[in-house]
Write a structure and sequence with these properties.
Layout: E1 20-33, E2 36-42, E3 47-52, H1 59-62, E4 70-79, E5 94-105, H2 123-128, H3 130-133, H4 137-159, E6 163-164, E7 181-184, E8 192-195, H5 200-208, E9 213-221, E10 234-243, H6 247-265, E11 277-279, H7 280-287, E12 301-302, H8 313-318, E13 325-331, H9 337-349, E14 356-362, E15 367-370, H10 372-389, E16 396-402, H11 404-421, E17 432-436, E18 441-443, E19 450-452, E20 478-483, E21 486-493, H12 498-507, H13 512-525, E22 533-539, H14 540-547, H15 578-584
Parallel strand pairs: 3-5, 6-9, 11-17
Antiparallel strand pairs: 1-2, 1-4, 2-3, 4-5, 7-8, 9-10, 10-22, 12-13, 13-16, 14-15, 14-16, 17-20, 18-19, 20-21, 21-22
């Protein structure tokens, strides 16, 4: 017999009754029923109930075991009494009478967290003792899901004739939207490598090298501020690139892969088959976000004309300033003063003075518009707003004004809250949308400096001709895919023409020498017959997070950092040893 097991803890059933078996695993829980001991033995695959009484030679040893001890037992498979069969587990028809036991690993002291049960523990505790946390059923399920998703992605990419290649982990620093993690060089004192924020330049170089379709499950490293849907250090993405393609070709490639993944692992929830293409400008207007949740049907609208010159002085005077407008958030079924006051308080918590509102109620002989705004602008303007928004009795509308960039994000969050609270958001669905036509440049309101809004490697729509007008009007062949309020994919058709690249960077304040210094490998390669190419990257962690119905990305990462970018289990980051610093020619300057 094998040294540790003849079967796993999920394999035994009624046909094994009478057999002698060997099992190994962890003690999930121990129950003493009047001198008869019951142990649920757990391994990665499942659970088997063990039984031991004083007739067993192993009884005195079995009495000593405690939760999460790792043990090996030999015993005889017995049928459970019919009334004690557990139909919820595959081994529920049998139990194993323990004849012999060996303790493979004890628990020393008290468990910092229990594996059995559904108790909640502080995240710091869970991350410090992640190896125990990962034994829990939910975490095992999440990590198996992640593994299965990655496996399925690979098969789907291979089926589309993509080739999987691995790109370097140690490389040169490259400005790609986040801070680099720098790695000092021992052989070249004073110089540094960087961990790649993404395989961006390498995958483009693969296209120059003549490979037509590339992908990899790529680790990416970015020194970013953490949030619920973003790791502060590293993450994985499905990275892909193709030659001789246009934007729609990329969409047509990735859509069946993601549709298949969400249908396969989404637990039966419907997956939208039509993925609308929404311009960045429209997404900001309608949803207040470039990653809108289309499960919520609410669309915001501009209603400036109804407040211009009106009796509501705040909005009327605001509209006299250049670049301002008033937007409305329709709220079907939100027509009560209590709800309107609650949303006004929400806006104040978000840092705004508040949100104006109008709600419509039945007054017996007709409909009445209520709220401070309605009184100030009068019935004619109020009715025009109602008609434009398509609202009626029992509905409401909320209003925000100013320069859109100052209130768009809050408006978007308010839209989400309204959809949730009024039951308008369809939670049992995956809704996708391509966000397209991103501006290539943005202007710093304080300094007036023009810089890249998004990916600096995107091909401008219109090519070189587009770069001779107002930079803020230049759009890129650049796109994101949103799903249920999260950005899942980002990509672009690349700028493969050196002369266009130099001009694009010149507008953002980077001279040709600087571009060659930062991106020399890619710029040089583009001198030798670079093909048109494009691609995208899909976030593995966020995909699994959505499929697992989790709200925090750390629930689907094996060993994540905490919110302070610390590994509590491995004690990272930690202080380097003096001889390490000397070897690298470095010293640490204390920060005040």
């Amino acid at each position: 017999m094998h040294a540790y097991r003849s079967q796993t803890c999920a394999e035994l059933n009624a046909k094994d009754v009478g057999n002698t078996v060997r099992l190994s695993g962890w003690v999930h829980r121990v129950r003493d029923h009047g001198g008869i001991l019951f142990i649920d033995l757990r391994d990665h695959y499942g659970m088997t109930q063990l039984i031991c009484d004083p007739d067993s030679a192993a009884f005195s040893d079995v009495e000593k075991v405690r939760s999460e001890w790792c043990i090996r037992i030999d015993g005889e498979v017995k049928a459970r009494d019919p009334e004690l069969v557990n139909a919820n587990i595959p081994t529920g028809e049998i139990e194993v009478f323990v004849r012999e036991i060996e303790v493979l690993g004890k628990v020393n002291g008290d468990l910092p967290l229990q594996v059995f049960g559904e108790q909640e523990y502080p995240e710091e505790t869970r991350l410090r003792y992640r190896y125990l946390d990962l034994r829990r059923e939910k975490m095992q399920r999440n990590m198996i899901l992640r593994s299965d998703v990655v496996s399925s992605i690979r098969k789907r990419m291979w089926d589309q004739e993509f080739k999987e290649f691995q790109t370097p982990i140690i490389t040169a620093s490259s400005p790609e939207g986040a801070r680099d993690f720098l790695v000092p060089s021992r052989l070249h004192p004073g110089k540094f490598y960087a961990l790649p924020q993404a395989p961006q330049q390498f995958k483009q170089l693969l296209m120059v090298s003549g490979f037509d379709k590339y992908f990899q499950i790529a680790p990416c490293f970015r020194d970013e501020d953490p949030r619920a849907d973003r790791s502060p250090t590293d993450f994985y993405q499905l990275d892909l690139e193709m030659s001789f393609v246009e934007q729609q070709d990329v969409f047509d490639t990735i859509q069946p892969v993601l549709t298949g993944i969400f249908e396969e692992f989404g637990g039966g929830r419907p997956v939208d088959q039509e993925w609308p293409q929404i311009s960045y400008k429209d997404a900001a207007l309608w949803y207040g976000s470039d990653k809108p949740d289309l499960r919520n049907p609410i669309k915001m609208q501009v209603v400036s004309e109804h407040f211009a010159g009106s009796g509501f002085a705040i909005f009327a005077k605001l509209l006299e300033q250049e670049g301002t407008e008033i937007r409305a958030i329709p709220a079907p079924k939100g027509g009560s003063r209590k709800f309107c006051d609650r949303m006004n308080a929400f806006a104040q918590k978000e840092g705004l003075p508040g949100m104006g509102y109008i709600f419509w109620r039945d007054q017996g002989e007709g409909m009445e518009a209520a709220g401070p705004l309605a009184k100030n602008i009068g019935p004619e303007r109020t009715e025009a707003i109602r008609v434009q928004l398509g609202l009626g009795v029992g509905d409401a509308a909320f209003f925000l004004g100013g320069k859109p960039k100052a209130f768009e994000a809050v408006a978007g969050r308010a839209r989400n809250v309204i959809g949730e609270e009024l039951g308008l958001t369809d939670k049992e669905r995956f809704a996708f949308a391509w966000i397209v036509d991103f501006p290539i440049y943005e202007k710093d309101e304080t300094t007036g400096k023009i810089d890249f809004e998004h990916n600096p490697f995107s091909m401008p729509q219109g090519g070189m001709d587009a770069l001779h007008g107002d930079p803020l009007d230049v759009l890129g062949y650049q796109y994101d895919l949103a799903c249920n309020g999260y950005e899942l994919v980002s990509g672009a058709i690349r700028n493969h023409r050196p002369e266009i690249m130099f001009k694009a960077f010149e507008i953002a304040g980077y001279g040709e020498d600087e571009v060659r210094k930062r991106f020399g490998g890619m710029v040089n390669a583009f001198q030798y017959g670079a093909p048109p190419h494009g691609g995208c990257a899909a976030g593995i962690d966020r995909i699994v997070m959505l499929l697992a119905e989790e709200n925090n990305i750390r629930e689907v990462i094996l060993f994540p950092m905490n919110q302070r970018a610390e590994d509590m289990m491995m004690n990272a980051p930690n202080d380097p040893m003096p001889d390490q610093l000397m070897e690298l020619g470095l010293r640490v300057i204390p920060q005040d």
